[in-house]
């Protein structure tokens, strides 16, 4: 097995690079609302989000990592070529959408890449359909739940504070946004970092380095959370602009409701082991708070473009992954 060690280490480095890129790409999910409402300056907001991204492993189990590691593609199909193809599909799609400022899903890029490379090797029989359907359903359910929760929160808060002046409400929710942004960053770190944990763990399992039973070693947990936090520190300013201001204008109260609705959605999904998109979730929540004000407050053409990116992310990443799997297989 020693001759395979350099390949194993190299692939782990690529996986951690994806995790760092995930943090970079999805930094906007954690900080767009708190920056757009001017509660925190961008340079402080990224430190705030990065800390809670890293600390997320203290609060959540590893159900999502288990799903990604064994519940999308059968572990027997996984080898170095499949993992390489999956990671390259996700990384290239992330870089493309990041360059264009499109808040697509890093999570579904990775899932699409895994499915694309796995089916390129072993056909559709390699797919664990229950896990893939559960993940695919979340493309619709997570933004819908974020939308509904944020909408309900805005209406409830508006009723509770109806006798307060707008300035007083702003001051209250400027403070409360520190809590809601922290919760969302915890949910982001808890759900997103686990996807890379699952990839690295199944890679180790395929190399026979976990024994007979699949599990996620603690050093994998720490390294993935650290890579996610470092990526968030690097920011993602193009997507911050789209998420924070192009979809709808936010007040501190609306920012609080969007982050809280999104955080509740992520906490539920992570507890159930569903690898959802933090990008989808916060976008749905932001649209929800905009629609609560008035339907015309949402720039629906921007939201439509984002939805189109959601739809094509998994197949696009899957096609790229299949190509890189074939290239890696041909290269030996």
UniProtKB/TrEMBL annotation:
Leader sequence segment: none
Highest taxon, organism lineage: Bacteria
Gene Ontology MF term list: phosphate transmembrane transporter activity
InterPro entries registered for this protein in UniProt: Phos_transporter
Pfam families from the UniProt entry: PHO4
GO terms (BP aspect): phosphate ion transmembrane transport
Annotated localization: Membrane
Keywords recorded for this protein, A-Z: Membrane, Transmembrane, Transmembrane helix, Transport
GO cellular component: a single term: membrane
Keyword Transmembrane helix among UniProt keywords: yes
Major location category of this protein: membrane
Keyword Ribonucleoprotein: no
Annotated TM spans: 6-24, 44-62, 82-102, 109-132, 138-162, 218-240, 261-287, 307-328
Membrane topology of this protein: Multi-pass membrane protein
Official protein name in the record: Inorganic phosphate transporter, PiT family
């Amino acid at each position: 097995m020693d001759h395979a060690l350099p390949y194993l280490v190299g692939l782990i480095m690529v996986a951690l690079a994806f995790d760092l890129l995930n943090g970079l790409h999805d930094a906007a999910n954690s900080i767009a609302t708190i920056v757009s409402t001017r509660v925190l300056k961008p340079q402080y907001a990224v430190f705030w989000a990065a800390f809670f991204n890293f600390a997320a492993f203290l609060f959540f189990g590893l159900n999502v990592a288990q799903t990604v590691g064994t519940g999308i593609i059968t572990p027997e199909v996984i080898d170095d070529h499949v993992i390489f193809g999956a990671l390259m599909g996700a990384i290239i799609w992330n870089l493309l959408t990041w360059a264009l400022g499109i808040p697509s899903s890093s999570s579904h890029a990775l899932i699409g890449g895994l499915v694309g490379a796995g089916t390129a090797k072993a056909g559709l029989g390699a797919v664990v359909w229950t896990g893939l359907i559960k993940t695919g359903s979340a493309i619709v359910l997570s933004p819908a739940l974020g939308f509904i929760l944020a909408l309900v929160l805005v209406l409830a808060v508006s009723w509770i504070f109806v006798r307060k002046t707008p300035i007083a409400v702003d001051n209250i929710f400027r403070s409360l946004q520190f809590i809601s942004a922290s919760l969302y960053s915890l949910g982001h770190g808890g759900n997103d970092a686990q996807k890379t944990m699952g990839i690295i763990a199944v890679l180790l399992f395929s190399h026979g380095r976990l024994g007979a039973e699949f599990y996620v070693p603690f050093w994998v947990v720490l390294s993935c959370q650290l890579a996610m936090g470092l990526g968030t520190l690097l920011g993602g300013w193009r997507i911050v602009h789209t998420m924070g201001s192009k979809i709808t204008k936010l007040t501190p109260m609306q920012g609080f409701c969007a982050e809280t609705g999104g955080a509740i959605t992520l906490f539920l999904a992570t507890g159930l082991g569903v690898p959802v998109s933090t990008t989808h979730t916060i976008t749905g929540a932001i649209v929800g708070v905009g629609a609560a004000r008035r339907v015309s407050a949402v720039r629906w053409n921007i939201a439509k473009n984002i939805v189109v990116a959601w739809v094509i992310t998994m197949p696009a990443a899957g096609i790229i992954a299949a190509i890189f799997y074939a290239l890696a297989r041909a290269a030996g």
